[in-house]
Amino acid sequence: MRIRTTTAVLVAAAAVPLALSAPAAQAATKPAAPYDFNGDGRVDLAIGAPGATVNGKAEAGAVSVVYGGSTGLKRSNNKLITQNTSGIPGSAEAGDIFGSAVASADLDRDGYAELLIGAPGEDVNGDTNGGTAVIVWGSASGLSGAVTLTDHFSTSLDRYGQAIAAGDFDGDGDTDVAVGATGSTAVTLTDGPLTRTGGFDGGSGSPTGSSTKYGAERLTAGDVTGAGFTGFVWHGRTAQGHTETRLADARIDNWSNWHQYLPPGQASAIGDIDGDGHGDIAVGNGSEPSADPNGAKGGVVRVVYGGPDGVDTTRPTLDITQATAGVPGAAETGDAFGSSVSLGDVNGDGYADLAVGAPGESTDSGTATGSVTVLYGSASGLTTKNAKSWTQATAGVPGASEKGDRFGSRVALTDHTGDGRAELTVSATGENSGDGAVWSLRGTATGLTATGATSFGPSATGVSTAGEPGYGTALND
After folding, report:
1. Which of 13, 76, 83, 363 could disulfide-link 90, Cβ–Cβ 3.0 to 4.6 Å?
2. What is the DSSP-derived secondary structure letter of residue 235?
3. Could you tell me which of 16, 24, 39 has the C-alpha nearest to residue 137?
């Protein structure tokens, strides 16, 4: 279903604060990379804490932004964003779970990336858990000011904002936004350009083909074909709760009826593992077969290689578990290997590497504390050569492995220093009885190092530790 709205209607209604066109001066500016909010060439970090208490409101939710620097994340240079922050629409209310999902892109192409934040628990016009999403604008001084992203299919969905992604989905050169929800319109696309002064230029909505109860639980964006437009992966579930994953091409008018099936899972990442110019897709499924027939003992990551038509059907899917030769550890029930995945170039060799979270992994102490495994890309694809796992018990990694930490809840491979090598950021949402925390390990020419590794929790960036904030539930998705 596609809708189109004219500028005149928007001005009269004064209800939709999105854009029709970008000013010429902005259009000439090279867009910033996602999550580079101040345009300094270094990727910043957005940390979602949807369970955070704000002004006594339990689970109102918060997002912490920590800016990148030449030596990595600058913990002292951070910004706390809640719905009580000046310039952010709405107000912090119990159960909003603001920060459940985050995404980023330079929507107005002014050289500063914007931050998109979902609050799927927001009650909207009497609709309980209708959900909302906001755009927070980037600038030379960082993030400031925001606008609500219009939910133009509000009557056919709930929990709008439970997933978000951004990219040029329709191939017209403007950056669009995809939002996941439950209900009969589980994925909504808002057409770009999106600017601070414009109106809504139309969009489209689609069911996922999965159960409307679960809807689109997660969205991942990236250029799979190498053609310069962005495809997106959506994760849904069947009525039985079994995972389903598909790749969509929104350049096609009836994109809701066109998709390529991917290995089912709860998480995905897109990056060029073999350097052939096509984005490859890593789909993680941390479920046991008893819970999801698409899972595997201890969890699994399945890599699908990209080609000019999307999935390259001439290459077999690569299955990676902790039972795979060369992968550290062992596949054990409950490890949840593949619950989170990220692709980024750790060593600067031009090939995307893969980080895999296993938040249920048991360490030497025999308790489920969590781990992260990093595997490297090459001209022939993903390899297990030099693969290494990291835990809080690894020398140089701050902290100590404790039961229930869930180290590896989320992982992100992003270049916070601007040196062309990705750092590994890891969250452990169960740290300190549900407070959560994040860790950052530097990338080097020979791979990741724990030398100089840092860690911090919610208090370091102003997030309340009342209740269970779940700091790191979302992490540069």
Report:
1. 83
2. E
3. 39
